[in-house]
Input
Amino acid sequence: MTDKMIPPKPKARPEKASLREYVKLFRKDILSAQPAKLYKAWMAEFRTPFFRSYLVNQPSLVKRVLKDEPMDFPKSGRIAEGLRPLLGESVFLTNGEVWKRQRRIIDPAFEGGRLKDTFPAMWMSAQAMVRRLESADALLDIEPEASHAAADVIFRTLFSIPITNEVAAKTFDKFQEYQATQPILNISAFIPLPKWMPRFHRRKAMRAAKEIRGLIEALTVERMAQIQAGTAPDDLATKIMTTKDPETGQSFSSQEMVDQVAIFFLAGHETSAAALGWALWLLAANPDIQERAAREADMLGPEPDFSDLKYLKFIKNVFKETLRLYPPVPMMVREASCPVRFRERDVPKGSQIVLSPWHLGRHEIFWENSHAFDPDRFETENGKQCLRDAYIPFSSGARVCTGAGFAMVEGPLLIAAVLARFKIEIVAEKEPVPIAHLTVRSKDGIWLKLTQR
Output
């Protein structure tokens, strides 16, 4: 395995850095703000004047936080500060009984049978992406195209409208503006501020978030009216808006639905787009692997159905390997709700518990040749064991991403659609540099050369 290609990763920061330097690096890019030792560490402690944080890589501790005692480690309110203007009280940010109620309503929409129902919409999005690429320049930044395709999937599966719909197009445009101006953390993530004090959000980000929520609200109000009139399409939005909490008998209000749609758009569009862009670059950088994947893609045919996904076994491994190397959400933060003990060390109440899909997925103790691109690793004993112990791109346990199954259909399908039509090559002078804002993207885009097959 030593001859496998090592794709780009950020340079680690110096071992010693002041709090000021760390905060500056963190706001710029959370990946290059971390020291190299985290790729080998079981646990690392970081202290600031205001709180302590512990990055946890040891599998038993990750399991404890995410699976065994998830209610003792709720989502960190510090991280929520930066995202709340867009996401409100969405399932991504809430905790406790509010979160449990939201999951009871949302989860049924993403159960097995519903994935089959969304397949035709995903395939239409994939074909629309191919048509756009056919008329695009041969040399292009694939990230905007991936974002466009992922947004199209969300609108078609959630609201039964394509990205060309006026409201959908406006929402997509505003989201691009929001992503460009909103760091994942703002100053209140580092310094505790009283509730009455302003949060120092960037004006452009606040304006974009407000406009996005207004557009989403228009879609949900229209759908509410269709549901009441009996004319609503049978898509994910209708399913979620008509599902009642089995314990209370209540469904989401219009405002609650705006919060949930906002996170579906963020999680389902932004993360999928990031993973798709990296997957296509990795395939372009590895022509032999690309040709193996392209042969699978040809097996789909011009009008596949859900059962044809069985032909994409290798492409699924390519996508899984992409998520290991470039997890869209590189770090997740929980908060200790009571004092605990990790590795014979006292962890005070209120400590930030950092779980890093980025470092866990590249951990040099677990994975063989951990920084290399090798889709076949999942067929080895080491790969299978690491999938169980050191692979959390969708989180794990009670708070595992609701759309994980959705993403594992969408990603391979979009990859297959592109490979069936194009041969893709890297642009040597434009090697991508990973950087994490909302998700792991490339600093200056992901440039590819496309040639029609």
